[in-house]
Amino acid sequence: MKFTFAQYEIFLDLLKSKNYAFSGYSQYPQSEKCVILRHDIDFSLRKALELARIENAKDVRATYFVLLSTNFYNVFSRGSYEMLMEVMDLGHSIGLHFDEKRYDIVDSKSLNLYINNEKHILEELLGESITAVSMHRPSKWILESNVKLEGIINTYSDCFFKDFKYLSDSRMLWREDVLGIIEKDQHDRLHILTHPFWYSDNEETMEEKLVGFIDSSRPERYAQIKENFRNLEEIISFSKIIY
User: Fold this and answer.
1) Taking a C-beta distance cutoff of 8 angstroms, is the pair 104, 76 a contact?
2) CATH code for 5-198?
3) How far apart are CA 41 and CA 197, in angstroms?
4) For residue 27, pLDDT beyond 90
5) What is the rounded end-to-end Cα distance, in angstroms, of the chain?
6) What is the domain partition of the chain in residue ranges?
7) What is the pTM of this model?
8) In the predicted model, is pLDDT for residue 243 greater than 80?
């Protein structure tokens, strides 16, 4: 499967043609045949919003998992907040993307403590209940221990890996033929993880995507400084920061 928006639309159309109900992590028992679409937002809220708009146009619902402990975006900034609100207005759910390496976690008690702290922060920001958490680069302990969490659904629990057929595009690599698996229609429950960062208008290599993202940081940083620095153009023109 190519990492383009056009291919992603084909992917959604195929799921719909096979009569999968698009479900959240709490609602799936209501459907005999369903797919949970999970999006981990590691780098770019803007890319996530692009996927959310495509899904909305197809009458598809997904869950977008947001990192609080990241240097790539700030959910409390006005621009980021407005993008998250638009994602929700498009009918999607927001979950917590949690980085266990951010904390000194020694057992399930401390894990629950830090997850619920971040859950509360995100709920206060968005004014919505956060019901599911996905782990950012999960440890072997998380992957193998079926950790029980308090008051929030663990998307890495056995249920979503054993009762569902799990498919992921991590590191821009589908380890199985996702379109072929959907086409064969052999699984009544699918759990599909994508990372919005990898999808774009045109086909690009991983290197091209990463270089493009790095290059885009220059005009974005200029715009951020301009919002907080009077008469920035008199000191440095926008043209000077473009390669």
Assistant:
1) no
2) 3.20.20.370
3) 7
4) yes
5) 33
6) 5-198, 206-241
7) 0.94
8) no
